[in-house]
Design goal:
With 110 residues, this protein is an all-alpha fold. Helices cover 48% and strands 0% of the residues.
């Protein structure tokens, strides 16, 4: 990416991939990341008391027509979301393992 990640001249190209990036990100940038995640956890992504199901994060804000679905459709959509979440967790775990093993997922073609 072009440009700088901080005012001290650290560019995006100076940041390595994977876990090694954490040691290269400036302290203010890490603080911003953790502060934003903390804000989301505390104020936005609250599991409401008396929700329709465990993990109901709607909070009365965005519904996207959920209340118009019948019970069978709601169950199907929750199952699909759960399976997609599991697939995403397996995918990120595979990427983390490959990084630690120093094995590239993309073969060298040239």
């Amino acid at each position: 990416l072009p440009g700088d990640i901080s005012f001290d001249g650290t560019s995006f190209a100076d940041i390595p991939d994977g876990f090694a990036a954490l040691s290269k990100i400036p302290d203010a940038g890490l603080f911003q990341l953790f502060a934003f995640i903390g804000f989301l956890e505390i104020f936005v992504m609250k599991d409401i008391t008396g929700g329709e199901f465990v993990g109901d994060f709607r909070n009365g804000f965005i519904d996207y027509g959920w209340d118009t679905f019948d019970e069978e459709t709601k169950f199907q959509k929750r199952a699909i979301e759960l399976n997609q979440g599991r697939a995403a967790m397996m995918g990120i775990l595979a990427l983390m393992v490959h990084e630690k093993l120093d094995v590239s997922l993309i073969p060298d073609l040239f």
